[in-house]
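Appendix B: complex inputs.
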Amino acid sequence: MHDWLVVGAGFAGSVMAERLARVRGDRVLLIDRRPHVAGNAFDTPDAAGVLIHQYGPHIFHTNSEAIFAYLSDFTDWRPYEHRVLAMVDGQLLPIPINRTTINRLYGLSLSSEAEVEAFLAARVEPIEEIRTSADVVLARVGRDLYEKFFRGYTRKQWGVDPSELDKSVTARVPTRANEDDRYFGDRFQAMPAEGFTRMFERMLDHPNIEIRLGTDLKEIRDRVPFRRMIYTGPVDEYFGFRFGKLPYRSLRFEHVTVDREWHQPVAVVNYPQTEDFTRVTEYKHLTGQSHPRTSLTYEYPSDDGDPYYPVPRPENAALYKRYEALADAEQDVWFVGRLATYRYYNMDQVVGQALATFRRIEDGLERPIRAAAE
Ligand code: FAD
Ligand code: UDP
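Resulting structure:
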């Protein structure tokens, strides 16, 4: 008898399994229908021996010292600050938009933050209530920069116009009046020294954790005895799509290795105006690996395929609320993670959510639970 069945070995499931086993001494069966742990953060050497991220570029960043310290028990870190360029009007320009972006794009030499703010202020559109992903950008940089950097990229990535997405989506990307060209502003920015998968393996290396890969909840739910469940898959799937499908945006990843040492100047180049793919990632910039060849991933967004992104818009939030009510009423099952709580969370936020769920479990349950149940 397992104390817990944990469904999904991504950040949500693995943090839960680790805490339940290590802190409470509970017996955990962790399953994933994929053939590996680490969920979407899975990295692996490709055929050429270059470490790649199978599900697109994952860069760790957080402002939470507690979350960084927790993960540091399972990995050393390689300092890394992420930088992204966007191919706009034939030039590679910094995104987030900053002073350099504006100077290069318009052939200007603005030299202070005040000058940049004045440049933007003359172009922004007055928007009374900022609701959508279009509003956020138009109100900060005006229409030309919006159209060049955001409109096309967002339509490709999400399959809808920015005016139909919550403001939270494009608000993830700041606009800066200085020359800071880092993608993230967080206090802690680093990559796990030996990769994400190795970090997960260390996290899950515990005698109380049994792992079964290539195993779907459907196959074992009625066959394996367990007392409680942590579920980290899509919430609508758990409830048999009772209220209809909750939209998740998918991606097709095209992984290639090319016969030269480097392909592009930074880890990620975005294509907001041209191409069917959104961005190209070159992993050696992220990992620091030396290799005579280099491996890249092209991302093609789509509606069909594995669920990767919850789609933040009001009608989806309303549909999720109906599923959330079912989830809240489900006895002895905790829903955790990006798919199970339908939130556009970064890795650190999922770790934070899992640690908070663990604290709630600790507060509410006898220890150990088998004593209470027996
Ligand atoms: P997942 O990693 O999706 O894990 C859920 C697991 O559950 C999956 O492995 C799935 O196979 C399994 N599962 C589902 N249903 C079942 C079932 N019925 N039976 C068995 N197993 C099941 N975050 C960052 O912080 N920085 C980044 O740079 C970043 N880049 C990203 C790039 C892309 C392309 C994507 C898609 C996401 C990115 N993220 C990034 C977000 C990050 O991937 C997530 O925050 C994190 O992986 C979510 O972890 P999770 O455990 O909730 O979900
Ligand atoms: N975005 C854009 N152009 C860019 C970068 C981002 O329009 O060059 C928009 C797009 O809608 C994207 C959102 O901002 O989905 C959030 O970007 P982020 O890099 O956080 O996306 P993620 O890494 O989660 O795919």
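Confidence is low (pLDDT under 50) at residues 370-374.
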